[in-house]
């Protein structure tokens, strides 16, 4: 077995046509994430990493808004005719980055939701004495991206992803595509994943290091029933106790959506991390998320070409 492996490697490196094989292997390594079916592998490896191979993390509420950082680079097949990373390829990277964050943070809550018949985390609204029934799903509702600077061929970058906010239905995450190594966190929650910075506050000129930003929203469901995100977040141990609980009335949610940074500034700066500080961070993010949510209303603008259309062409 070993002899055959050595013979195969020797033929690959020295046999006829070796230059073509070596170049092909080199290109495959440099562009591996663009190879067919590798996206599926990347997604399922992230899920397996956090939901199967590792113990479910027990984070305290002050970690809810921390970043998950993923590293990558722009491959040859990511590049468009302008010789920079194509806008469409950002979304494939976001798929993986979001799974790493959600899998790391919410594994315990999603597991409890999947065992709802036993945990009774969500009750049937038609009969509150029994658990809601149906298959559990976590579905992506929408993504909005804003492109700031180009990513050049093979340029490395990092994706910094964190929880932005949530409302009665949607769980929002924000991702930043950042120049690799340009920004360092103040600390790591567990272990060491690289150097940290000593200065407090935002890194100097960090905005110039951001290639793009993206906001994504997810919905948790049991059958056809949408699950309030606070239920899953709370079951993951990430919400401090709050008088009256976190499932508030619709009118309260509408009020918080109109809050401003100025209204929550004092709450954010409280020294103790209690429910007020978590709510302050949620409101701060919701200021931006609420604008994103209004884009859902664009479906009402579609009129089926009432005044006509130019023509019909193939996408290729």
TrEMBL record:
Record family assignment = Belongs to the lcsJ thioesterase family.
Pfam families in alphabetical order: 4HBT_2 (PF13279)
Q: What is this protein called?
A: Capsule polysaccharide biosynthesis protein
Q: Which CDD domains match?
A: 4HBT
Entry's InterPro entries? HotDog_dom_sf, THEM6_lcsJ_thioesterase
Please give the superkingdom of this protein's source. Answer: Eukaryota
């Amino acid at each position: 077995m070993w002899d055959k492996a050595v013979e195969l490697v020797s033929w690959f490196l020295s046999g006829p046509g070796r230059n073509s094989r070596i170049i092909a292997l080199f290109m495959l390594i440099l562009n591996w994430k663009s190879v067919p079916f590798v996206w599926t592998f990347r997604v399922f490896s992230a899920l397996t990493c956090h939901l199967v191979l590792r113990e479910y993390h027990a984070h305290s509420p002050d970690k809810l808004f921390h970043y998950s950082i993923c590293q990558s680079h722009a491959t040859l097949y990511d590049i468009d005719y302008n010789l920079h990373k194509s806008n469409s390829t950002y979304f494939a990277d976001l798929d993986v980055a979001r799974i790493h964050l959600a899998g790391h943070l919410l594994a315990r809550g999603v597991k409890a939701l999947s065992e709802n018949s036993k945990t009774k985390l969500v009750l049937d609204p038609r009969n509150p004495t029994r658990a809601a029934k149906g298959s559990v799903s976590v579905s992506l509702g929408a993504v909005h991206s804003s492109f700031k600077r180009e990513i050049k061929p093979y340029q490395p970058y990092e994706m910094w992803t964190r929880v932005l906010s949530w409302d009665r239905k949607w769980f929002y995450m924000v991702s930043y595509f950042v120049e690799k190594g340009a920004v360092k966190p103040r600390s790591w929650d567990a272990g060491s994943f690289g150097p940290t910075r000593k200065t407090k506050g935002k890194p100097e000129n960090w905005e110039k290091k951001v290639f793009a930003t993206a906001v994504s929203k997810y919905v948790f469901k049991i059958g056809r029933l949408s699950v309030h995100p606070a239920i899953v977040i709370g079951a993951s141990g990430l919400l401090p106790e709050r008088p009256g609980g976190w499932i508030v009335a619709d009118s309260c949610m509408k009020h918080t959506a109109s809050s401003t940074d100025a209204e929550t500034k004092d709450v954010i700066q409280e020294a103790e991390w209690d429910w007020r500080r978590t709510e302050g961070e949620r409101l701060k993010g919701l200021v931006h998320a609420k604008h994103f949510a209004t884009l859902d209303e664009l479906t009402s603008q579609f009129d089926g070409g009432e005044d006509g259309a130019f023509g019909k062409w193939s996408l290729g």
